[in-house]
Task: structure prediction
Amino acid sequence: MSLVLKGGRVVDPASQRDEVADVVIDEGRIAEIGKDLKGDDTLDATGAVVAPGFVDMHTHVREPGREDEETIASASAAAAKGGYTAICTMPNTDPVADSASVVETVWALGREAGLVQVVPAGALSKNLEGLKMADIGEMARSAARVRLFTDDGRGVQDALFARRTMEYLLAFDGIYAEHCEVDALAADGQMHEGELSAKLGLRGIPAEAEELMAARDVALAKLTGCRLHLLHISTAGTVDIVRRAKAEGLRVTAEATPHHFTLTDAALESYDPMAKVNPPLRDDTHREAVIEGLADGTIDAIATDHAPHAQEEKDQELMFCPPGMLGLETALALTVTELVHTGRITLSRAIELLSTTPARLLGLEGQGALEVGGVANLCVFDPAAEWTVDPAAFSSKSRNTPFAGRAVKGKVLHAFFIGRQTVRDGELVIGELV
Ligand SMILES: [Zn+2]
Result:
């Protein structure tokens, strides 16, 4: 049974394709792209965009350990609904993904869920303690074939540990990914350090807590030759550090989250625990710099930092609630609403940031491109469709989003993972192989 997606705007930055065309999916692959194509079945895509499935470089799935907040299956469902066909899972689970057995478990549970490709990241250090190296080689050689390593949730504080780990990663071209945060400067901070934190009487996290570590890591990447990826960058200074590193030809990449280009620290004016996140929402100058970085190619990827939390934990005073917010089911809409409809980036650049580049950085075959003969991992979305964010409708097991009730544009209509339809008319389906 072949399926033809009829009359959509096919946008694939990898092949620089941007044209109205039909796409035929057959036996899990893209059989044809062109005009007036036929198939056994037809799905009308008129007015919609047909794009390669999105690839999230930064997802917290909470399994193993906190299955009450999210599981690999529920995160996969949320991802599929958000237009994703691959997610890279962060290792700060319980137990920590610092060994071959844990990353293989995550990878296998992802295959079992079967809605998106689950790509486990491994820890840099044992138990994320920043002291002893995790079983990096074993994780790289495991069935999960880990390529990206990070202690995300905290930064590596010891520069010598960072250097030695980068040297070790060089052997198999692994990516050293940093959550840039100098603990001594960030300690007990609740929000961005600035005028507003002073006014609200909350302890701030200065931009420099991020920038010092970003600068250190770039220096070490230059010293060692290791690939460096900076997670969720949030300050003007960090954007500048990445821009200069790229100009120097270093193998340095960076991601930014939808919340950092959408919101500012003003979201904390009412002490809203949903707006607490790490790194914190910054002021407008920083937000603008992040958008500029996304537009000019300095920042390589939009990553969600999808961080589910139990309601009772999030519903605490700012001081006590854990940082983090959901992202998978709102990322496309926030990108389209905040960046594309405002004219800051093109639709093609948005897809490059959401799919093409993250797929390439993670080395994922069959992801991030629409090519004849290639695996049918794709999504269809309506960039003009308006909707209101309703956490109750999320497939995630958690509800912590600061975007509840927000009117947005850009809605995922359909998604296909290895030729199987996972989302139809915005609803999760487990389709037969096309
Ligand atoms: Zn982080």
Summary: The radius of gyration is 20 Å. The chain has two domains: 2-50+374-428, 52-362. Residues 152-153, 179, 231-232 surround zinc ion (CB under 6 Å).
